[in-house]
Amino acid sequence: MKKLLLAALLGCAAWAHAEPMLLCSDMEKKAGLQPGQLFTQEQMDQISNTEQLAAVGIDFAQGILHYCGVGVPKNVEKALNLWKSAAFKGQKNAFLTLIAVYSGAFGDVPDQEKMLEWLILGAKAGVAESQLALGEMHLSGELVAKNRAEAERWLLKSAAQGDAKAQIALGALYFGEMKYREALLWFNFGAAQGHAEAQFWMGLLYFNGWGVEIDHRTAMKWWRAAAEQKHPKAQFNVGYGYESGKGLEKNQPEAIKWYRLAAEQGFPQAQEVMAKVYEFGLGVAQDKVLAFQWWKKLADQKNLMAQLRVGWMYVGGIGVAQNEAEGIRWFRTAAEQDMPEAYVSLALAHEYGLGVAVDLDVALSLRLRLEKRNRKYKNGLVDSCAFIQDTQLAEINAREFRLHENRSTPDGFIKRAANYLAEHKPKEALCWYQRAADSAYTSGLAALGNAYLSNGDIGTNPKLGIHYLRVGAAQADLSARVSLAKVYQAGEFVPQNMVAAYALRFATKRDFEELDSVLENYHSSVENEMTPDQILQAKQLIREMSAPGQYLIALDRATAQ
């Protein structure tokens, strides 16, 4: 019994760093006690007089027994008093345990005031972990005043004791202040102790030449050391080294191996790489099913790009059974997080009936949301050609935009579409017109709208043609407004309406309040076909359309039959 008890108590030194309830149960088993069984007085005397417990501290060990209720009645207050006694005798683990208890880490009611009190006492007593925590709190301003000088002072004290985490925190502090040489010094101390995070930072400094000459080989040496300790960012960077040949000999299989290791640990960039590797067959056999699985892992981490990709894979049946409704659900998930590309994807779905009923009013409202978005729009995230249902065409387009990041302008897309039309390739032409329209630039909307209203190889689709012109017109695109004006002037596809044709041709950058003076001298090229009364109506319509948020509302009211 005595030997079993000693084995249990001698494990108390690390108690504050583990799950206490698990250790409580473990100690009871090791002591050979049944649940609720108490020590005899003789056994308690033996515990108190055990020399082997001197290194642990009798007060600290007995505090654990009372906290857990192992061999003695559970008494948290008595345990706290014993730990305080141990702390005042310089027992490091007693400080850490008190801090943990008062922080609520063991399931007790948190007491931030007492936690901070013991944290400061521990730091002043030279407990490196307390000094580190206090330094980090002064950096963040959590529970204490934000104070860079105090943060540095406590981090230095902890780092000087060899605490690798403090050395890294100090290095990160100096790195953030672009004091790269000081950062290098402290990261090096942590790296010399074999700490993976410090080794990662050393690689970063050498790779970019921060505080030291650029040395890709040395950077890869440090990253490899961290990667072998399963540091996911380091694993990813080693993969990049093998892929790019920077610091390592190019080796695609090795690159994929390290990317995979990082991806399996949930590192988002690595998961994206693995998804593309399998989707496009980059160094491995193309496998759309595995590609979908990697995209799905990333999407489940709330990565917007991956959520959108998973949506398009469901819509197209790429690597997964086709399920347009599920694809739309993923589009909506991304759109709820205000992703512009998700708005366009949902708009496309409502324009072409992908998983939802065709509803051009909904599509219009979705596309108009892009007006208010300043974030750079990424063409490659939207499968603009999916509605054409041509697998080969979709694959070619996906490679160009998602793999090679086509950086052409919408005008470039429009030119390519025109070239395909000249070659009598309507699917390809429509694909590029749609890409231009989906690119968040209004000129593409006008081009696609006009393409659908022409009698060319693409085929006429008046509803979609007018829809795209309306979206462009609402976003103040002059070419879309003029094209829509011509439609109303000619009375083709819609009832003729000269008032609307006149108003749509009006373009000014003047303030709304200055409209009257501008309109007095305004003359449209369609006036010869209008009566004076129609001209007056048209100028009134211009005033109504120029009011904020009223452009299409006023136009629709004027053209309603």
Question: Can you characterise this structure?
Answer:
The structure is a single chain. The chain is an all-alpha fold. Among the domains are: 2-226, Tetratricopeptide repeat domain (Serine Threonine Protein Phosphatase 5, Tetratricopeptide repeat, Alpha Horseshoe), CATH 1.25.40; 230-301, Tetratricopeptide repeat domain (Serine Threonine Protein Phosphatase 5, Tetratricopeptide repeat), CATH 1.25.40; 503-561, no CATH class. The protein is 65% helix and 0% strand. It contains 31 helices and no strands. It has helices at 2-9, 20-30, 41-48, 58-68, 76-88, 92-103, 112-124, 128-140, 148-160, 164-176, 180-192, 196-208, 216-227, 232-244, 252-264, 268-280, 288-299, 304-316, 324-335, 340-352, 360-368, 391-403, 410-422, 426-437, 442-453, 462-474, 478-490, 498-504, 515-520, 532-546, 551-559.
Describe the SSE topology.
Layout: H1 2-9, H2 20-30, H3 41-48, H4 58-68, H5 76-88, H6 92-103, H7 112-124, H8 128-140, H9 148-160, H10 164-176, H11 180-192, H12 196-208, H13 216-227, H14 232-244, H15 252-264, H16 268-280, H17 288-299, H18 304-316, H19 324-335, H20 340-352, H21 360-368, H22 391-403, H23 410-422, H24 426-437, H25 442-453, H26 462-474, H27 478-490, H28 498-504, H29 515-520, H30 532-546, H31 551-559
Helix pairs in contact: 1-2, 4-5, 5-6, 6-7, 7-8, 8-9, 9-10, 10-11, 11-12, 12-13, 13-14, 14-15, 15-16, 16-17, 17-18, 18-19, 19-20, 20-21, 21-26, 23-24, 24-25, 25-26, 25-27, 26-27, 27-28, 28-30, 30-31
Give a summary of the structure in a few sentences.
The protein is an all-alpha fold and 561 residues long. The chain is built from 31 helices and no strands. The protein has helices spanning 2-9, 20-30, 41-48, 58-68, 76-88, 92-103, 112-124, 128-140, 148-160, 164-176, 180-192, 196-208, 216-227, 232-244, 252-264, 268-280, 288-299, 304-316, 324-335, 340-352, 360-368, 391-403, 410-422, 426-437, 442-453, 462-474, 478-490, 498-504, 515-520, 532-546, 551-559.
